[in-house]
Every structure is written in structure tokens, then in C-alpha cells.
Amino acid sequence: xxxxxxxxxxxxxxxxxxxxxxxxxxxxxxxxxxxxxxxxxxxxxxxxxxxxxxxxxxxxxxxxxxxxxxxxxxxxxxxxxxxxxxxxxxxxxxxxxxxxxxxxxxxxxxxxxxxxxxxxxxxxxxxxxxxxxxxxxxxxxxxxxxxxxxxxxxxxxxxxxxxxxxxxxxxxxxxxxxxxxxxxxxxxxxxxxxxxxxxxxxxxxxxxxxxxxxxxxxxxxxxxxxxxxxxxxxxxxxxxxxxxxxxxxxxxxxxxxxxxxxxxxxxxxxxxxxxxxxxxxxxxxxxxxxxxxxxxxxxxxxxxxxxxxxxxxxxxxxxxxxxxxxxxxxxxxxxxxxxxxxxxxxxxxxxxxxxxxxxxxxxxxxxxxxxxxxxxxxxxxxxxxxxxxxxxxxxxx
Length: 397
Ligand code: FEO
What we know:
Shape: elongated
Bound molecules: MU-OXO-diiron
Strand content: 15-25%
Oligomer: single chain
Number of strands: 24
């Protein structure tokens, strides 16, 4: 596949990773892309590079547009290795006049590549860099999602190079939002936010507010993963606005693992109670749903009900792993409840509640446990638990 012209004198020269299926614990079932861009002007400027393993694809696309030695500036919006892995090789090839990065980006680049003498130029927010007919300006986006992260805005073309933000892990031969299935695009945008940005929602909220207040005109949002938002960047901005405000859809999830189907039977009756209250509910068995797909559902959910039996005075390993993952991402503004079966010691419900308390969930009920196998009266209590969660959702709606 060749480079792709995205606007006059601006080219996509990134790489498509059709094979990646695990991105440090996030399941990337549709692969991903590492986007890089070339801006042809008096100072030819490369925005970002790619993961080392795909350096040849990137260099071939780059060379199809320009001789690398003619490149003057390299902008590094983010130092994580999927966007900087082949930077040392590119620097050797290009011998750039400037490597433009944030203040924290400078620090991170030196700490990654141990090249203190590269020609760094710190991008100062609000200070423009002219590259000829076009002008670059910069927005510090510290902790979105690394300390070094920044956006680059190409003023004349109203293009926002947004690094990881607004990205999707989606390998496709198409480069634009209007060329792919919108349902798949939204699914991957949601999953990306849920697994990468949920923890930083307060910062996303401030960023969206400052973009709105500044009146920044955006014709195109150009992330470093997935497709470019050219038809309607507002879709991505509105979605980030909603998620960063922790607005759930009023629905519930029953997330569980089970040993001998007792907790599974309980889960089904908790769901039945939610349905009695006309609450939309999904049952997510952790044996069959990857934690990162479950987090995608958590992002839009208003209630999380957790079910797990007790194993060795603790939780089943899949639930323990999921709780560690979810606690790290810190979803906010959720109603919570817990249940589970046990044989003798029975700590699981207490542990589930503790984890939800730490995430400041609104726990509607202390939850309950059932010894070995639930009887009819136990299952009736499960229905009641589901109803109690549903009623709380209606109160807080
Ligand atoms: Fe796509 Fe934070 O790297």
C-alpha cells in the first residue's frame, strides 16, 4: 500500500499492523495502525514515526513522497515506542534540523534513546513555528496519556494531529472515518477510550472544555491509531465529552465468573431482577469476555454488579485480574452490588465490595453469598438484588 494524500501537500506515511492481538493487555482483535504524516512545505515536516517492527513499511511510504534527507523537522507528539520505535534510524537518515517535542517529551526522548545531543526544540504552547506557507502550533496534553503527550495543530488546514487521543485500534486499508463501518468505528473508539483514557477523564474533560472555549476550528482530527476523522470530527469530540463527564447510559452489567455454575445461576436471576425494573442488562462471563472488551462495556454502563465464588479465601483468578485492571482505570459514577457462592470460608463478596468501595461506587446493598448451590429462596434474593440495583438507577437517572 502506498502513502495516502490526506490534503494538499499532506500525506499519511504510517504503517498498518494487521497482526497485533495484544497491546500490553488490551486485546486488539482488529489489529491497529501507527500513523505518521508528512507535510510538504519550505521546511518539510514529519509528524511522528512508527513501531520498530514496521519500520520498512513506513520508510517505503516516506520515500515514495520525498527523499528522507530533504526532511527538515520531525515532530514527536508522543514518545511511547509504538510512535517512536524507529526514531533513531529516522534521525540517522534525515539528519533533522529540529526535533520538535514537548518539554516532557524532550526528557522522555533522552531517557528512551540516550541521545542528549539531538537537535531538540521544545514546543511552547501558544508559540507558533512557521514551516513556510503553513504554521504549526502546539497544545500540551500532559497525561493524555503520558507526561510527554502533546497535540500539533496545523493552522491553515485546521488539522489537529491528536496523537493517541481519538484513536482506534483498527487495521484497515481505508484511511478515513467515512470509509469504514460506523458501528465498528464507534466500537473501537469506545474500547480505546475505555482502556487507555478512563483514568484520565478529568484531564480529558478540561481539554474538551478548553478546545470549546478557544473556538479552535477543526476540519480534521488526525490520530496516531486508526482512521482520520475528516467527515465529522464532532462525533469523536462529543463521545469524549460524554465519557469524560462519566455519563452512563442507564444500563447495567452483571460481570461474573463461576466454578460449578452456582454463581452463574445467581447472575441470571440478578439480571432478571434488573429486567423487572426495565433496565437493559448484559451478562458478561469473564471466562468468555476479555477484560478489555468488558471495560468497553463498563465505560457506558451505569451499574456494575459483580459475582464471584470464593477460591482459597479469595477470588477466582479471572475476577481478581479483572478487578486489578478495572481499579487501575478507575471508572467513576457507577452503582454497584456483589454476590457469589462459597463452600466454607466465603470471602468473595466482601472482597468485591471492597474493590468497588475503593472505586467509590454507590453500593446499593451489602450483597449476599450462597453456600454451595442456591435454592429457590436464594434465587429469589438474587432477583431482589437486581431490582434494588434497578431502582437505584432510576433514582439517580
Ligand atoms: Fe499509541 Fe501511547 O501510544
